[in-house]
Design brief:
- By secondary structure, the protein is of the alpha+beta class.
- It contains 3 helices and 5 strands; from the N terminus they run E-H-H-E-E-E-E-H.
- Strands 1-3-4-5-2 form a 5-stranded antiparallel sheet, covered by helices on one side.
Length: about 140
């Protein structure tokens, strides 16, 4: 499963040469990740909070290929790697203008689930497990 999310580069994201600072790619990864989770499982960030679902990033990587610039329209393509455990990875590709456009960056983030008290969970939280079951064959 993949989701394409449109992003427009804002002025505050660029330097004096109008090139995006590298850290903003991770912001865009987060936007793509929440877009995928909402479209795939019907779960919003508010649902995460209300159900005590915490999924910190434990690993993040980005390979930069070409700069994004002020005003660019970008597509963040996000994929969820299948997993049988409560550890999961999202893959990202950032394109200029369209999925067929210039590839600007690739990356991934790996996450786990923890309880509100900070304990590592070994099972997917019930809300997500129920939503995954409702969309048979789609899992973390």
């Amino acid at each position: 499963m993949q989701v394409d999310t449109e992003i427009r580069v804002r002025f505050r994201e660029v330097d004096s040469a109008r090139v995006v600072h590298h850290s903003h790619f991770f912001d865009w990864f987060e936007v793509g990740r929440f877009d995928l989770v909402q479209k795939l499982f019907g779960v919003t960030p508010e649902d995460f909070q209300a159900h005590g679902i915490i999924s910190p990033v434990i690993e993040a990587h980005c390979r930069y290929r070409s700069p994004a610039r002020w005003g660019d329209r970008l597509i963040v393509r996000t994929r969820l790697q299948p997993s049988e455990v409560a550890r999961f990875t999202f893959d990202y590709e950032v394109y200029r203008d369209s999925p067929e456009g210039e590839l600007l960056a690739t990356g991934y983030t790996t996450h786990v689930f923890v309880s509100p008290e900070g304990r590592l969970l070994v099972e997917v939280p019930p809300l997500l497990r129920e939503r995954m079951a409702a969309r048979q064959g789609v899992g973390l």
